[in-house]
Amino acid sequence: MKKFLSLIIAVILTLSLVACGNDTTKNEQTPPSSEEQGSESQQDAVELEDKLVIYSTHPEDMLEFLAEEFEKETGVTVEFINLRGELADRVRAEKENPQSDIMYGGASSLFIDLNKEGLFEKYIPTWDKDIDPMYKDSEGYWYGTIQTPVMIFYNNEMLSEEEAPKDWYDLSKPEFKDNIVTRNTLSSSIRATYASLLYQFDKEGKIDDGWEFMKEMESNIKNYYGSGSLQFQAVGRKEAAISYAVLSSIIDNIEENDMPLTIVDAESGSPVITDAIAVIKGAKHPKAAEAFVEFAGSPEIQAKLANDFNRLPTHPEAIKNGKQWMKESNYKVMDVDWSVVSEKEAEWLQKWDTDIKDGNKEVNE
């Protein structure tokens, strides 16, 4: 991968030489476009701070890889803190005195919500123009770097295709009693999934029917797990046949752990979470933070995460250079207005946790 900073320095030197032979005054110059703003920010990033702090929900092996690559690229030392279910609360609590420079990971609905609270700094990277609008904030406050479908799957040694659920709504059927296991709602993907399911009823003005569905589905859930590895182990040892998780994790367990799993392309579609990144407002290392956004969303790094960590990119060039299953992914996408979900998710999930979920099913080890 070409070194970003070497390119930036070369660009600056070239521009300087051009400027020496140009009599045009500053007032006569054309204002920079939004795309050029990202390039100018990169130029500023030549003089980066020596440290960067990242709050994240991503696995530590992936964060360690990114930290090492970014340090090689820039010389900046990266400190990452994995917060998972506590990420949003931590960023909010530190609003007046941020201790992190980057928020990396979590559903777009969460980023939409936090952006409304003025917690992010605008930054437009050079690859902005290549990203589908559905994967980014229209004003440049956050960007999706990973697209994360959440899909139903089942142990095909326990259920045949005919017996298995065909859609999310099937999970409330009596025949699946005690035959479902899943993550608890500390998982941001599970929170986004439940909010997406409730949104299907809310948009039709039938939220009470949605809660009835959630109650019936919950009665079929045998256990909730505090980690994805425990969740998949439970399906693998045939504690229950059915679960739902992010697509990359399902494929990881099929390919690496040889688990007998079949993925369901749900009839009503699967929620597709945009896993995002943003610069935190008031960051103590703002130039290094902008450089990391440029780095993390680049097609080169997205392709590395695709091939080495099975993460489905948002950048189309990275998809072309990713794994074969990514190029062939054509699952149905559930209709979700994430701006609405961002407004209602906290209220809905509180009701789920207090009124619907059976806490006696919680298993953390």
From TrEMBL:
<protein>
    <submittedName>
        <fullName>Iron(III) transport system substrate-binding protein</fullName>
    </submittedName>
</protein>
<feature type="region of interest" description="Disordered">
    <location>
        <begin position="24"/>
        <end position="43"/>
    </location>
</feature>
<feature type="compositionally biased region" description="Low complexity">
    <location>
        <begin position="28"/>
        <end position="43"/>
    </location>
</feature>
<keyword id="KW-0732">Signal</keyword>
<dbReference type="Pfam" id="PF13343">
    <property type="entry name" value="SBP_bac_6"/>
</dbReference>
<dbReference type="InterPro" id="IPR026045">
    <property type="entry name" value="Ferric-bd"/>
</dbReference>
<feature type="signal peptide">
    <location>
        <begin position="1"/>
        <end position="21"/>
    </location>
</feature>
